[in-house]
Amino acid sequence: MRWIPAARSGRWWVYAGVSSLVVTVLIWIIRFMVLGQPFTGTLAFRFLLLAVILSFLFSFMGWLGACRLWLLSNIGLAAGLILMAVYSRDMTGWEDLISFLVFLQATAAGFVLGLVVEVIMLIVRASKK
Hints:
Low-confidence stretches: none
Order of helices and strands: HHHH
Shape: elongated
Strand content: under 5%
Radius of gyration: 16 Å
Mean pLDDT: 94
Number of helices: 4
Largest sheet: none
């Protein structure tokens, strides 16, 4: 995992910015193109805020030194985007809300899995000392 920056490196903020842009564009594509919802500035801005908050939260964890948490959280985020795109096909009404909830659940699952892995690694390091 040499491409993952060291703790307290400034590259984490570059990763956060790039991740914010990519996640925002992907959410917009899924919601406004795949689902065919009408584009509204308010909704687009809310999706932008969601992407920025998630990306900077995950990168902040990496900046603190929890690189496994960052990696697994981003894997959960990517899986959530894929699941949202899959579940949003040919759906209207409540079903498009379900696709968004699946996105949030997959992202949360990646974050929780990352927390568990970081705690396990912390226990392993503490037991070696």
